């Protein structure tokens, strides 16, 4: 011992664990296991209860049992080509039985006569013979505990080349060597108050539990740990902003603001006015704004974004507007440059794949403060993008970005005011805890005059009639979208499906219409051209993959046809439908699908029943049921290792109030009882591989 660099499980590479060589270490890397700590925090996904030893002579056939005995003899036979049967005779107090394996000839060599073994597997009985078809076994060596049988056995997320037996062995070896190096870092008061098992003990119990109660307690501890650390970070973030003083101040007059409003063809809704007032109040405060603006699809968030940006422009400062996709960023760019040109406000676009020379020239002007508003994609985050005086950051469709990207854009200015906009209706039950560091504004009403979107369900056979309907709408001067699904297994198939559909519509079903195609892998200028033509009415029907899912705004489009609608989640369907119903004309959404599952049928039913994004979000979670994190992921909340935000709602709330209490009473974590926590966070910050993935 005393060899400090390998005593610390957090930094010791996993190859220092007994029996792990370079090749295994590489395979473990695929499970994101790099250090001893990663290995010990690779928790079982379930357990098999092999704790009760029975006599195979007392149990009926067909049961899965765990039995013990002494090896007598073994033999391999080959009853068929490609089949090796290993049969080992085992002695037990009630008589001799047989253990069998298929195609595992190596076990015969391991199971030498005289060895004591534990065997788990399926019991088979016939004509007086008793045999166990072995799933897992263990030789009892007398030193150390059994890992694979004769106990509650952990089952891990595994990967090619790494078996359950290996993982159990590695974890056990790591626990023996490093388990006791762990020190509890959660505050004592919390551990006692919540009755959580302490660290080294909890690690043992989650991997090799004495009984199922202890396993459950240990799991609860790690879920709590995960949620508490998450909430603690949010509380600290928030505490930081609240304390920060921003260097910039805004001018009092709002000339541009008034001018812009006067130029709009409509008046703000009451809901828009209210959120604008909330934002302006934040901006007038000496502390930076950190506000989430939630508003359903089509509720008019863009106008609010522009007013926020104009506040900076008016004061001689700069604003940045970031959107998740090129299509969306370009659309914002076009609409902003159009509406701000009359006010004499310059707007620039910064996307990926911009020619180097053009880009450099643009960056220079931005850095010199000559361009007050920059719209772009994640390209805004690149290191060489510098601002002269960045005061306002607006991020559209937050669920596509993580907390880290948000932070990166914030870094481009000195305490800029940040507005995050999302149309993803995070269920109210979750948003408080998940966006705990932000203030929240909600646009809770749509602009007036919107007509409900009629939503229909059709079987694929009925599509020809649907296209006839589309053609009629086009003849009446309207435009339509036809969305084909993303084929997840293959981007190429996906693209091919879109191209095939496009050809079929352009050449046959919709021959009389001008049909366009938009997909994710077109070049930027090609996409731009298609969107431009569609907006300008040069294209009647736009066939598209889901790239148009977020934010596209073409008011004259009144028909949305979604092919294979059963493949989309509710949130996505709602987003897609939100592309129509924007112009005040009657709009239609046609969902074509074959309903192969109950869930799909429920989703279609919900779509027909409601147009309220919040309702649909809650409904989505109900349909999926707790445990299906995919649903939660779509709502834009981070992924956790063990915690399930729905199932563990109560723990989340408890962890949140504990975390806030800690930060309220000891914001810098300097109190004696919080020091271990502080060191823990500092170390994690250093290793920058936090075990939940925010982004
Ligand atoms: P989203 O919140 O989905 O981003 P947009 O900002 O794209 O919504 O607005 C949707 C449409 O509603 C746009 O065509 C916009 O011009 C229009 N709009 C926004 N506010 C109003 C309003 N107060 N009255 C009428 N139309 C509005
Ligand atoms: Mg939008």
Summarize the structure.
The protein is an alpha/beta fold. It has 24 helices and 20 strands. Helix 12 crosses helix 18 (524-535).
Word description of this protein:
By secondary structure, this protein is an alpha/beta fold. The protein folds into four domains: 52-149, Beta Barrel (OB fold (Dihydrolipoamide Acetyltransferase, E2P)); 183-243 and 647-694, no CATH class; 255-443, P-loop containing nucleotide triphosphate hydrolases (Rossmann fold); 454-610, 3-Layer(aba) Sandwich (Rossmann fold), CATH 3.40.50.300. 40% of the residues lie in helices and 19% in strands. It contains 24 helices and 20 strands. The strands form four sheets. Strands 10-11-9-12-13-8-14 form a seven-stranded parallel beta sheet, sandwiched between helices. It has a six-stranded parallel beta sheet with strand order 15-20-19-16-18-17, sandwiched between helices. Strands 2-3-4-6-5 form a five-stranded mixed beta barrel. Helix 7 packs across helix 8 (212-243), helix 8 (212-243) crosses helix 23 and helix 10 packs parallel to helix 11. The two termini are 39 Å apart. The model is unreliable at 626-635 and 689-695 (pLDDT under 50). Adenosine-5'-diphosphate binds at residues 266, 268-269, 272, 295, 297-303, 423, 447, 551, 553, 555, 582.
Structural key phrases:
single chain; alpha/beta; OB fold (Dihydrolipoamide Acetyltransferase, E2P); Rossmann fold; 7-stranded parallel sheet; 19% strand; disordered C terminus; binds adenosine-5'-diphosphate; binds magnesium ion
What is the secondary structure topology, with strand pairs?
Elements: H1 4-7, H2 22-29, H3 36-40, E1 46-49, E2 64-80, E3 83-92, E4 95-102, H4 106-110, E5 116-126, E6 129-139, E7 152-155, H5 164-178, H6 188-193, H7 199-207, H8 212-243, H9 255-263, H10 270-284, E8 290-295, H11 301-314, E9 318-322, H12 326-340, E10 347-350, H13 356-367, E11 373-376, E12 390-396, H14 403-410, E13 417-422, H15 428-434, E14 439-443, E15 453-458, H16 463-475, E16 479-483, H17 491-509, E17 515-518, H18 524-535, E18 541-544, E19 557-562, H19 570-577, E20 587-592, H20 598-609, H21 613-624, H22 629-634, H23 649-665, H24 675-687
Parallel strand pairs: 4-6, 8-13, 8-14, 9-11, 9-12, 10-11, 12-13, 15-20, 16-18, 16-19, 17-18, 19-20
Antiparallel strand pairs: 1-7, 2-3, 2-5, 3-4, 5-6
Helix pairs in contact: 7-8, 8-23, 9-11, 10-11, 12-18, 20-21
The protein binds adenosine-5'-diphosphate and magnesium ion.
Adenosine-5'-diphosphate binds at residues 266, 268-269, 272, 295, 297-303, 423, 447, 551, 553, 555, 582.
């Amino acid at each position: 011992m005393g060899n400090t660099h390998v005593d610390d499980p957090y930094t010791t590479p996993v190859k220092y664990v007994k029996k792990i060589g370079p090749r295994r270490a590489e395979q473990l890397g695929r499970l994101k296991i790099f250090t001893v700590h990663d290995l010990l925090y690779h928790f079982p996904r379930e357990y098999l209860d092999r704790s009760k030893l029975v006599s195979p002579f007392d149990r009926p056939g067909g049961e899965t049992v765990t039995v013990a005995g002494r090896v007598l003899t073994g033999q391999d036979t080959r009853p068929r080509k490609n089949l090796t049967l290993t049969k080992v005779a085992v002695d037990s107090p009630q008589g001799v039985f047989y253990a069998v394996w298929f195609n595992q000839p190596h076990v015969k060599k391991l199971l030498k006569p005289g060895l004591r073994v534990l065997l788990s597997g399926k019991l088979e009985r016939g004509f007086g013979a008793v045999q166990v078809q072995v799933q897992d076994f263990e030789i009892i060596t007398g030193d150390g505990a059994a890992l694979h049988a004769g106990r509650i056995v952990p089952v891990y997320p595994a990967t090619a080349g790494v078996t359950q037996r290996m993982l159990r062995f590695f974890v056990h070896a790591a626990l023996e060597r490093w388990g006791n190096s762990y020190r509890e870092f959660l505050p004592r008061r919390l551990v006692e108050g919540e009755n959580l098992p302490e660290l080294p003990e909890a690690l043992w119990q989650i991997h090799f539990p004495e009984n199922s109660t202890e396993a459950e307690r240990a799991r609860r501890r790690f879920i709590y740990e995960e949620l508490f650390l998450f909430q603690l970070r949010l509380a600290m973030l928030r505490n930081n902003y609240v304390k920060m003083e921003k260097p910039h101040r805004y001018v009092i007059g709002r000339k541009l603001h008034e001018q812009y409003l006067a130029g709009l063809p409509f008046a703000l809704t009451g809901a828009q006015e209210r959120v604008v007032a909330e934002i302006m109040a934040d901006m007038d405060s000496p502390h930076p704004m950190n506000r989430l603006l939630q508003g359903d699809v089509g509720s008019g968030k863009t106008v609010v974004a522009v007013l926020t940006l104009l506040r900076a422009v008016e004061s001689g400062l700069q604003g940045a507007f970031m959107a998740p996709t090129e299509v969306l960023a370009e659309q914002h760019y076009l609409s902003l440059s159009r509406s701000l040109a009359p006010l004499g406000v310059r707007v620039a676009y910064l996307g990926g794949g911009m020619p180097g020379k053009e880009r450099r020239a643009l960056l220079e002007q931005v850095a010199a403060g000559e361009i007050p508003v920059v719209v772009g994609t994640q390209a805004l985050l690149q290191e060489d993008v510098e601002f002269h005086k960045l005061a306002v950051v607006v991020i559209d469709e937050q669920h596509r970005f993580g907390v880290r990207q948000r932070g990166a854009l914030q870094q481009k200015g000195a305490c800029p005011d940040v507005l995050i906009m999302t149309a993803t209706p995070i269920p109210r039950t979750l948003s408080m805890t998940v966006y705990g560091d932000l203030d929240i504004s909600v646009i809770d009403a749509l602009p007036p005059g919107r007509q409900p979107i009629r939503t229909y369900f059709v079987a694929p056979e009925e599509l020809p009639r649907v296209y006839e309907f589309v053609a009629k709408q086009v003849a009446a001067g309207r435009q339509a979208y036809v969305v084909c699904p993303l084929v997840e297994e293959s981007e190429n198939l996906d693209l091919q499906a879109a191209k095939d559909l496009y050809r079929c519509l352009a050449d046959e079903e919709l021959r009389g219409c001008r049909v366009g195609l938009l997909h994710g892998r077109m070049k930027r200028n090609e996409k731009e051209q298609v969107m431009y033509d569609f907006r300008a009415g040069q294209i009647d029907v736009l066939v598209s993959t889901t790239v148009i899912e977020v934010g596209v705004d073409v008011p004259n489009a009144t028909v949305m046809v979604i092919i294979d609608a059963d493949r989309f989640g509710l949130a996505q369907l709602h987003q897609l439908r939100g592309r129509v119903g924007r112009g005040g004309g009657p709009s239609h959404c046609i969902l074509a699908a074959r309903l192969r599952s109950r869930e799909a049928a429920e989703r279609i039913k919900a779509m027909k029943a409601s147009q309220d994004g919040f309702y649909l979000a809650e409904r989505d979670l109900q349909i999926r049921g707790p445990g299906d994190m995919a649903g939660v992921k779509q709502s834009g909340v981070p992924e956790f290792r063990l915690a399930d935000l729905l199932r563990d709602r109560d723990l989340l709330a408890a962890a949140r109030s504990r975390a806030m209490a800690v930060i309220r009473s000891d914001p810098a974590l300097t109190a004696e009882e919080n020091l271990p926590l502080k060191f823990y966070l500092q170390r994690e910050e250093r290793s920058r591989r936090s075990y939940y993935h925010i982004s």
